[in-house]
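In response to reviewer comment 3 from the previous cycle, which asked for concrete evidence that the modeling workflow produces usable outputs, we include below a single protein chain processed end to end. The sequence was submitted unchanged, and the resulting structure tokens are shown without manual editing.
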Amino acid sequence: MDLIATAQDLIRFKTITGNESEIRKASEYIAAKFFKTDVKTEIFQSTASPVIFLKNCDGIDFDVLILGHIDVVPAEDKMFDPVIRDGKMFGRGTLDMKSFAAVALNSMEYVTTHKLPIRFGVILSTDEEKGSKSTESFLKAYPDIKAKIVLDNDVGGDIKKIVTKCKNPVFVKLIAKGIEAHGSTPWEGIDANEILFKTWQNIRKIYPYYAKNLPQPKDKWIDTVHFAKVEGGQVSNIISNYAEALLDFRLTENSSVENLKNNLDKCLEYGVSYEIVSTSVPVVMDENNDDILNYKAFAENILGQKIEFEHIGGATDSREFAVKGSVVIMHSGTGEGMHASSEYVEIKSVEQIADIQIKFLEYLAAKNR
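The workflow returned the following structure tokens.
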């Protein structure tokens, strides 16, 4: 497989989350790559967004699974025409994460062509950028699916670092209910906006505000929250009787949703309540795990340098397998501008990730012989 050409092909599909026609075309393109091979291909769909499921075996008990997605965030049309310049490939999805979806397809081709004795699969979702509802539906349809090892390339952005910890994203809606009145007589009402902001100030006493132009925390493996969205009031001269805000908490493995609820309960002003919109689990891997250390050794040999372990605040779809006991190896190529107009990936790093995966798969296959 021409790895970079395949990545470019995938980038040309305008698979913005929700663009069903382009997502369908991209899914069929992927399936067609394994037509007349031993790969079992399924385009699973129970929601608006499908999941592409490839495997080289019967059943759903895998030695190795690769997880990823092919949907992207919105961009100008020109970003769907990838440009290669100075060893970098620019375009929407180059880093997040069509280049590494291509790596997964390359690994599948290698495993089947070389008949490696491992049970191997690839799962690519198409709505990861908006919550991975398709993955949830897929896993409900395959509740017994499991894997000893999961390779996750949808993290980081630096090939010199392997991620071993991801935080738990918890989204909370604050709801403030007041009493409307004319803006000239505020004493006759209760301002929902005001009590919402007071609650927010109380929350900030527990979860401090951080910004690029402010002092940085010495330890960044901490619980954080940002004010993702706020809405309140309809007319400028009326005291608002309703306001709401969406809060994005990122919790470490040392915290819990119950502890978060206890903190929120202490912060609420009269008239303010909250709802837990969604929650997940942190992904925490043992850095002394043999499989992780062996993968790291292959990576260091190919890169010709040492690799560090890293902790990140972002979430990963591999969490669903981590809770089942899978060893999750989170490692991606190098690039910048994820979700920005300057998005790019270093082509050499894409090729190196592909090489690392193949060496690691060969190693696992040798263990099975």
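The mean pLDDT is 95. We consider this sufficient to address the reviewer's concern, and the full set will be provided in the supplementary archive.
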